[in-house]
Each structure stands twice: as structure tokens, then as C-alpha cells.
Amino acid sequence: MNPLVSASPDTTSTHTALTGHSAPALARCFARAASIAVTLAGAALLAACASHSDRSSLGTSSDPSSTRSATSRNAAPPNIVLILTDDLGVGELGSYGQKLIRTPNLDALAAQGVRFTNAYAGSAVCAPSRCVLLTGRHTGHSEIRDNKELQPEGQQPISESAITIAETLKARGYATAAIGKWGLGPPGSSGDPAKHGFDLFFGYNCQRHAHNHYPTWLYRNNTRVDLPGNKPKYASGTETTGTYAPDLMREEALAFIDQHAAAPFFLYFATTVPHMAMQVPESSLAEYRGKLDEKPYNGKSYLPHPDPHAAYAAMITRMDADVGTLIARLRERRNDRDTLVIFTSDNGPTINVGGADSTFFNSTAGLRGRKMDLYEGGIRVPLIATWITDGLSGRVQGISATPVAAWDLFPTIAALCGVEPPGGLDGIDLSPILRARGQPAAREYLYWEYPDGKGWQAVRIGNMKAIRRNATATPKGPIEVYDLAADPAETTDISASRPEIVKRAEEIFGARTPSPIADWNYD
Q1: Is this model's pTM higher than 0.85 or not?
Q2: How would you class 406 by CB atoms within 10 Å of its CB: exposed for 0-12, middle for 13-18, buried for 19 or more?
Q3: Parallel, antiparallel, or unpaired: how do β-strands 383-388 and 114-116 relate?
Q4: What is the dihedral of CA 193, 196, 200, 203, to 10 degrees?
Q5: How many CB atoms neighbour CB 453 within 10 A?
Q6: 3-class DSSP state for residue 465?
Q7: Cβ atoms 319, 85 nearer than 8 A
Q8: Which residues have CB under 8 Å from 417's CB, separation 6+?
Q9: 126-135 and 409-417 are packed helices; what angle lies between their axes, rounded to 10 degrees?
Q10: 276 and 89 in contact (C-beta within 8 Å)?
């Protein structure tokens, strides 16, 4: 079978509920827990991408100028650069069908690597999605399942015993950095990045603080770094006096790459773009001003902006340029070592707040829903994985329709770096796809829950998607079923004709691990 084609069976009934794996895997999960105490046209576009992947062949290419020995390259574990955007929709890159926003660097990255057309975030909002990504456990098992704000700053922390990708790689000798937005615990708390394997943290610890791209301070580890040229309060998104925080994050990432070029490194680059507020330097805004239909945003929960469409597009294009700068530096600093660059988003596009207009940009590519719900538009995200290499690893190129999720990245990275992942992870190893060595292990389903918005649960079983809404008030309430192959925009509930999917979804929904935070449970 072509390794970039998804088998996508409707069901495989031999797996254990809520892991998607076997009974031993479930046992390992509980053991670890104990030890750790919109338009159809747009949707058709994504469907066409997936359909194209069935016709594509896995391609590899090598650089004939490479003089490095296979022995040397095999001995050097790869660098890993994991880029996480903030509220970027699956339809907001040119390689995923975007027509109005320029993303040339990311489009080139997608063309040079593997572009996944059935990729999912860990959750529909920021903090739980980041927890899932870094700890490899979906929201039926993860410690963080919703945004929970703390005062004076920060969000509900992960426990000190939670094991992250960074901790696992650091034990292998990797230098590690988290640059951008954290959101998994205040400085000094159990969720402090330094307690989870990161040698360096630079950026916003608190998600609320990250709503301003011109802050008066950021954190370097637990020390505040003042930005004296930035104003305590801005009146409009067009005020760009001072230092743009994403620029500082880019420079910090470049410095980290330079400093650790000789050793393997893991760079988690969690940009705050394109999350609101609508702020971008004039040099970038000028590219789009006057070229898009506009309705001024007068401000409510975020800063007003007279050209919100132009500003939003400019934020993404500037972020794309930052990625291009990082890629160029990685190519310069290869030093006898390959680098895998993974690019994705924490959830679907925003719900048209702060001047953002997901409808105008067709940010979900026609899929139903947006951030804060579990329909496809809220959790489907771009996912690109590309090798920066001289030859032996090959430039694995193609389009994969295999359903994958954020919790797959931990076991995948561990496998590629030659380390043993902790027990109890919910993901599967995708390295066969990234090495052109066939399909990853089969699994039955992907699971999500999101307690806000009256409570959601969702499961994808093959091409079938089951969703329960209002789960907090009605934990045994009705379940909707959609055939994503025939109806990617989830317009027609076919639960009445697929009772076996309803029954299996009930079993999976009931097998979640209860959270110690009462508000995150359904009972």
C-alpha cells in the first residue's frame, strides 16, 4: 500500500475503549496515571486534497552533492523544530487552498515534505491543546482539558510528574527551548517550563498576557525582561510603537539554533500569531492595505482596527516570513545533522472576535465549526513535516490522508530521536510516513472532549465522526454521526442509520478518565 494513503476503515472492534490501542496499552496508561498522581465548496477542496493523496506516490530525493557518510548521519540524532501557531485555521495557508493570504515559505515547506490533509489538534482551545501536544495524551486522559485562568497570571498548571517531549529528549542529551506562548502553569508552579525539560523559556507564560503583541515585558525563564519602548496601553491596532513580540521570539529562536548547532536540539516555537489582538508592524500591513474589502473593527474585547482584513492577512504573511528565516538558518547550520521541521496549529480559527473574520478568508476551508467546538472546523489543522537534510534521510514528499492528531507527535519524535517514550501515551508513531517506510500502526479511533460550551465529546472512527453536545447537562444525551468521506462539512446527521457507530461512541465516551477538576467532568 502507498504509505501516503490512509486505509480509513469504518471500524476495527478489537481495540479497547478510549485508547484506540490494545488492552495492554490501556493498562500502561492506568499504570502511568497511578505513577504520575462555511461552504460545501470549501469542504470539497479539502476532500479533493485527500482524494489526490490516494493517487500520489511517496517521493524521496537525495542531494547528490552530499559527501557525508551514512555511518556519520545514522549516528547523529536529528534536531526537532516544532512550530505551533495560535488559532491558524486549516484553510489559511496557500498549500491548503487559501486564496487571499500569501504564505510562500510555508507552501514551499509543504511542497518539500509531507502535507497531512486529515490532521487534528489536541483540543479546540489553547491550553489543553498544548498539554496534549507536549505530553502525548488526548483530552480523555490529559491533565489539562480546558482553559482555566489563574490570578495574577497564568493558567492551571500541569503536574511536576507530567512527562513532556522536552524531558524525554533532554535525557538523550538534547538542548531544549520553548519560545513563544506557554499556558501550562505560572512561573514557579508545577507547570513551570523549567520543571518540564526546557533549558530555556522565552516569551509569554500567561495566555491572557499574549493577547497583546506589544507587551511591556516578557519572560526569560522566570525573569521578566522589560520592553521599555512599548506602551502600557494602546488605543488602536495601528499603533505599533515599540517592539513587536513575535520579532523578539524569532530572534531568540535564531540565537538558540546558532548556539546549539553542534549538538542535537529540540526547539518548541509556539508563536502567538494569528491570535488577536489585531496588531502588526506597518511594514507588513502595507502589503494588504487597500487590497481587501474592509469593515472597520471598532473594538470591544480587543483593540480596534480600521483595516482588520489587511491586518489579519499581514500577521500571517509576516509569520510565514519568520518561518522562512528559521528554515534558512537551519539550512546554514546543518553541521552533519538532519533537522525535522513540524508545523501545525493549536486549534481551528477564531470565532470572529477582535476583528478576525474566518468567514471572509474561508479559514476552515468550508468545514463546519471554529475554535471552541469539536466539529471539524474547530479541530482540523494544517500539519506539515519536512526534513532539512543533505541526503540520506531523503526529502520525503507527498500528501497524506491518514488521520493523525497532535498526540501522535510525541511517540513519533521519540522514535525518530532513538528514545523510549513514557508509557501510557495515546498516540501512534508516524515515523514510517516520514521515512517512507509504509503505514503507521493501525488504530480504531481518535477522541476529544471539551468541557466548555455546555460540554462536548467527539470521536472519529475511520471516516465516521460521532459528536455529543451538551454533555455536561446530558451525559447520556443524543449522539450525532457524520460520514466525513461523503459529508466533510458535517451537514447531515446519519445517526439513525448507523446505530453501531452510536453504540461504539457511547462506549468510548464512557471510558474517559475522570479529571480531578470537577468542572471538566460529565456526570
Answers
A1: yes
A2: buried
A3: antiparallel
A4: -20
A5: 17
A6: strand
A7: yes
A8: 77, 78, 80, 169, 172, 174, 264
A9: 30
A10: no
The answer to whether 374 touches 458, Cβ cutoff 8 Å, is yes
Q: Tens digits of per-residue pLDDT, 229-259? A: 999 999 999 999 999 999 999 999 999 999 9
* Torsion sign, CA atoms 391, 394, 398, 401: negative
φ/ψ of residue 181, rounded to 5: -105, 135
Q: Is residue 375 packed enough to be buried (19+ CB in 10 Å), middle (13-18) or exposed (0-12)?
A: buried
CB-based burial of residue 262 (10 Å sphere; 0-12 exposed, 13-18 middle, 19+ buried)?
Answer: exposed
User: What is the average per-residue pLDDT within 433-443?
Assistant: 93
Secondary structure class of 155 (helix, strand, coil) = strand
Q: What is the 3-state secondary structure (H, E, C) of 309-341?
A: HHHHHHHHHHHHHHHHHHHHHHHHCCCCCCEEE
Euclidean distance between the first and final Cα of the chain, in Å? 44
Which three-class secondary structure string do you get for 231-252?
A: CCCCCCCCCCCCCCHHHHHHHH
Give the containing element (helix H, strand E) for 483: strand 480-483
User: Residue 466 corresponds to which amino acid?
Assistant: A
Phi, psi of 294 (to 5 degrees): -130, 145
Contact between 425 and 137 under an 8 Å Cβ cutoff? The reply is yes
Give the SS3 label for residue 83.
Answer: strand
- In the numeric block, which cell numbers belong to residue 8? 480509513
pLDDT tens figures, 80-130 = 999 999 999 999 999 999 999 999 999 999 999 999 999 999 999 999 999
451 or 41, which is more confident: 451
Q: Any residues with CB less than 8 A from the CB of 185 and at least 6 apart, and which?
A: 154, 155, 156, 157, 158, 191, 192
